[in-house]
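Thread title: Can someone regenerate the structure for this chain?

I was given the following input by a collaborator and told the matching structure tokens would be attached. They weren't. Posting the sequence so someone can regenerate them.
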Amino acid sequence: MLQLHTFSHSSASYRVRIALALKGVTSDSHFVSLIANDHLSDPYRTLNPEGRVPAIVTENGVLTQSFAIMDWLEDTIPEPSLYPSDIWQRALCRAFAHAIASDIFPVQNLGVRRKLAADFGADEARTTQWCAEWIAKGFAALEMETAKRFWSPEQGYLFGPLPTLADICLVPQMNNARRYGVDLTPFPLLVAADAKARAHPAFITTAPETQAG
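Best answer:
Regenerated them for you:
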């Protein structure tokens, strides 16, 4: 059985948990607390020198980085796919997902917040403001992109009748947006897409509040 090293409130970990659930793959969860700095311990750094979550132990070895893990799942278990079938829509889906995972998320994760506090004296209010501003800026662009596609929840999930990588990335980031008090009023399409996806069993059973640790 796969061994998933994960943290309940890690967005990247949540993405992989969702993807595993959508693919119908079970895993043995090992909880790595980012708050308690378990990810910086020697045993975990031996497993994953990056000192990040998630990491998944397979019969072939250890794989890190949420997108690499999800791509591996897609390659080894093609159905149900995490992407739309149309090639152009697949590209748009990837762009949406990467806008979150590559642009929005990295500037507000735990390491960045700790660095802001340690090196620049930012208190909790300032770091919260920092996170909220970057999330709102990214969401504004994604809202516009979604509007350009004339999307509505009646059409299905963000890129089709099944959840895709776009939904997998949006829901954890929406959790962060609410955590940092982002005003979501300007983003009705993203709010609707989030509500639709988080009602899916794969999102419910893997949500942070359902996890140990």
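The two ends are 20 Å apart (CA to CA).
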